[in-house]
Amino acid sequence: MTLAGTMALICWLGFFSLSLYGLWLHTEIEEAVDRAQSPAKPQEMSFLDLERRRNPWRLFPAYRSLYPSGRLLPRYWIAVCGSNLCIVAAIALLFHAMK
Length: 99
Prior knowledge:
The protein is an all-alpha fold. It has helices at 3-37, 56-66, 72-98.
């Protein structure tokens, strides 16, 4: 395997790990908003529970208004942007390795 192929595989693994980390952070943001809006009964959820997922256009402003100095949202965007960069790099390196 060439160096480009090895780097493509590493970027591919980085894409999957950052994607899962982003899903976990999204779930944590949803749970934080649920706890702040209804502290009597927080709802437990799994990051695979896709039916309960909220629209990010409503969730992220709610999180920002409830937690102005919250650290989860910047981490989420770093994970999402990092996963996109990893998949682009993996595809580019894969095409480079095929030449």
